[in-house]
Design a protein that fits this description.
α5 (117-135) packs across α10 and α9 (304-311) packs across α10. A hairpin with a 2-residue loop joins β4 and β5. The chain is globular and about 80 Å long. Strands 1-2-6-3-7-17 form a six-stranded mixed beta sheet, sandwiched between helices. It has a four-stranded antiparallel beta sheet with strand order 11-13-9-14. A three-stranded antiparallel beta sheet has the order 4-5-18. It contains ten helices and 18 strands. It has helices at residues 3-10, 13-16, 20-35, 45-57, 117-135, 159-166, 211-224, 272-282, 304-311, 352-387; strands at 63-65, 68-73, 82-88, 106-108, 111-113, 142-148, 171-174, 182-186, 188-197, 201-202, 238-245, 253-254, 257-266, 286-289, 297-298, 316-319, 332-334, 349-351.
């Protein structure tokens, strides 16, 4: 990130309207409260209640659906567009190796430790106070805040569950730990369940057809095969066999079936059906996808959100990890404080200064986005006038 450009932007009058210290204090206090409440996927009732009451105390009208909390700001009768601010409040279960209580928010040497502090608590609270900031202003677009559930398991009770209630959405900012870099592309995920079938027999007489041997041939293909089209942002399609299992536990029986699981990470050049067709044409096993919901996504470099980030000097990259961005049928930019490599690790933490930078970065980005869409609107009007 070009810090000089960002620093210049922070000196603009619009940015000075906010009280960054107050917003930062609110954000850190809220994050500490969130850490203290277990919120594993599908068990987020406590954190949903906390977020609902917190927003209500801040004077925000709140809606709740399941364990999802959402609110709308914007006083303009005819907004030029709608922008969604989204992050999640569910967490994975604590990794092995924690040396401190994962539900005790603990500050030490400029760090805040606790489960979910980095993924994605810091992004969530930074977006929440950013929403408060803009809720008090006469902004030219509709701003929606959604704190959602089940992101860690890509559950259907999360962002997908409330999208019909949010109305038309033009684009979104998805809060995840990216070091405040713009994840303009994201790999898709397809999990395959495969089964190789043989014929059982007595091992001593080498009877039957060994399903494990058939599995080995297919695994060798998955390990060696490369798809033709690489992505400039996301690299090649990757396939990793991650689980192997057979129901047969007897040493003297040739197994008649063997199951295995394949983790497939796709880039934007392929559809799920194209990948499935290639795989099925090359392996002997029966292959079935668990889901084809988690598609690869790409937001165009010319989109006003991306242009706004570039004007602020934010770096852009392709993300190898999945998020709720994959479930959004509109352009979305993934960006937030923290580091992806800290996610799901023991003694998870966020650097406190990263929260402040996240708040400042989000507000600067939305201010610049507002300016960008106004410029685009004026250019479109001028072009239409010229055509007439």
């Amino acid at each position: 990130m070009n810090l000089l450009v960002w620093y210049i932007k922070l000196k603009e009058p619009a940015f000075y309207k906010m009280n960054t210290d107050l917003l930062y204090t609110k954000a850190v206090q809220l994050l500490k409260q969130l850490i203290a409440i277990p919120s594993f996927s599908k068990e987020e009732h406590g954190t949903a209640q906390l977020l609902q009451h917190w927003l209500m105390r801040e004077g925000i009208a709140v809606q709740r659906k399941g364990n999802n909390i959402y609110a709308v700001a914007g006083r303009t009768k005819k907004p030029v567009c709608s922008l969604l601010l989204n992050s999640h409040h569910d967490t994975v279960r604590p990794a092995g190796g924690y040396t401190r209580d994962p539900f005790l928010a603990f500050e030490q040497e400029g760090r805040l430790y606790g489960l979910g502090s980095n993924d994605a608590g810091a992004s969530l609270v930074a977006l929440a106070v950013t929403f408060l900031h803009f809720a008090q202003q006469d902004i030219p677009f509709k701003l929606i805040l959604a704190a959602t559930a089940e992101e860690e398991i890509s559950g259907k009770g999360g962002i997908e569950f409330i999208l019909p209630d949010l109305g038309n959405i033009d684009c979104a900012i998805v809060g995840e730990p990216t070091g405040m870099k713009m994840a303009v592309a994201e790999r898709g995920l397809m999990v395959l369940d495969a089964v190789a079938r043989g014929v059982s027999g007595h091992a001593a007489r080498k009877e039957g057809e060994n399903a494990i041997y058939k599995t080995m041939q297919d695994i060798a293909w998955f390990a060696a095969y490369t798809f033709d089209h690489n992505s400039e942002l996301l690299g090649p399609v990757s396939m990793q066999v991650t689980v192997i299992d057979t129901e047969n536990k007897a040493h003297n029986v040739v197994p008649d079936q063997c199951r295995f699981t394949v983790d497939v990470r796709m880039n934007e050049h392929y559809t799920y059906q194209e990948l499935l067709d290639t795989i099925r044409a090359n392996v002997h096993s029966d292959v079935q996808p668990r889901s084809t919901r988690l598609r690869s996504t790409l937001i165009a470099s010319g989109h006003p959100l991306v242009q706004a980030g570039k004007a602020l000097g934010f770096d852009a990259y392709g993300s190898p990890t999945i998020s709720d961005k994959a479930l959004m049928p509109f352009p979305a930019l993934k960006i937030g404080p923290g580091a992806s490599e800290r996610s799901h690790t023991a003694d998870e933490f966020i650097i406190l200064e990263e929260i402040r930078q996240g708040i400042e970065g989000y507000i600067a980005l939305i201010n610049q986005f507002s300016q960008q869409i106004n410029n685009d609107k004026h250019e479109a009007m001028a072009e239409a006038s010229h055509i007439r």
